[in-house]
Structures are given as structure tokens and as C-alpha cells.
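Subject — a protein and its fold
Fields — amino acid sequence, C-alpha cells
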Amino acid sequence: MPTNRLILVSKSGFTRGALKRVALENGRVSAIQPNLVMVDNEPVVRNFSMDEVAYDVTGCRIFIRNPDGTKASAIGAPNIDTRQDGTFVAKLSDLVNELVDFEPVKLAIINDARNHPERDSIRGFSCGGPIAELECYVSHVPTSSFWHIEEIVIWGDFSFSQREIDMPLTDLDGRIFGSAEIEVGGHPVAIVGITDAESQTTTVSWHSPRAPIFSASAQPALFPEIERLLRLPTSVEAPVVDAWLAAQEPGQTALKGQGPPPGVDEQD
């Protein structure tokens, strides 16, 4: 694409020789050096809080209906096959991961943690509810029959932390912005905040040259029906550590200590 102006930016500034060459370009080239915004000989620093959330599924229990109509439950083995219309779809672990990673469920867990009165003490999470509409079945090898999964309860490890990010303000040819370099998940991340003077709003963006950490998975959903099923609003009782919400609605979540919810054993 043709350009009519070139803007060069250097944090450390430019040599005299470089500036002379810029001057010969008759305004087509600009050389700009960012400068810290100073007040009373002190740099002006803005800061904001960044939430860091990590959770990992460690187990689940499936509530199934037998071919004879009776109901039962069992701890779900991650490598057990799931079927729809008699056709293999994926492992049970894939179903669990898609349920937990579904955006409304994920946001509900994160928001519950953010508003939790003891969020720094949270060490586990639970979520679950009816999924009969997915028409997922698991095979019972000894009888060669299929069990319809009507409900599921999922639990796992959870951690929440919050850190303050300091962003010194910089003047770049009359444009004021804040910036910082941090590490997230072992990846370097550059953060930039730009404030709109008229609306008094600040937009924060980030970039990591080696990070797919902020990118959504491009893998197609194995259970696309989840999007239709889990559109009900999520809610949590006044969250208390070790509380478990009897998941009567899809997408409900509870934050708690380590291990499965009370009343749900990890082993049969």
C-alpha cells in the first residue's frame, strides 16, 4: 500500500545524523521520541487491577437412566466413549471440557470468584445441571447397553488472584498513553492504555508476540448443542467457601474448597 508519510519512533531518541536525514525529507518523515509525563519532577503513573483466574477439571459425576428406566449415578471416567444417535462423538472428558469452557459458564465462574467475599481462599469450583437434551449416551460394557446422561456435576481446582499494574504515562507527540510490560502464563505481554479526553474513558489493549493465550480455540465444537442448552441465566447463592449449589438449572456454579461438592464422592 502506498504511503505519503513515515513516522519513526525511538524510545532512546535519534542521533544527529539521523535527524539531519529526517529533515531532508521535507516533512514526509517524522522522528518522535516518547517522553514520560512529569509533574513536580515525578513521573505520572496510572494503575489498574488485573484478575488472574485458573481452573482445572479434576472429576465429574454423571447421572444416567438405564434402559429399564431406573436411574443411577457414577463417577465419570475421562476416557469413556460418548455417543449420539448410536454414533461415537468423543470422550467424556471432551464433553466435560466443552461444558466448562462454554463462554457463559466460564464467565459465571469468573464473576462469582471476583465477587466472592473470600475469593483469595477459593481452591475449587463446581458446576453442573441437566444435559438430557444433548442426547448423549455412554456405553455399559458388561451389558452392551447404553446409558442416557441426564445430569452432570463437574468439579476441579481453582485459584483467583489480583495484581496491580502500574502504567507510567508517556507523551508521544501530543498523544498521552500508559504502558507496561508484564508476564502472563509465562508469556511476555505488552499492555497499553489510551484515555479519550472527551469521553473520559480509557481503552486497555494488550499484545503478546508468542501468545495464543488470549486466542479462542479454532477447533470446531464436538457438541454444538451446548450453545442452545446453556443459554439459561446463571446464578449463585450468596457464595460461601464450601457451598454447593444443587444444580437444578444448566450453568449454575459454586465456588468452594478443594474436592467434589458435599454429597458427591470421588469414588463409588
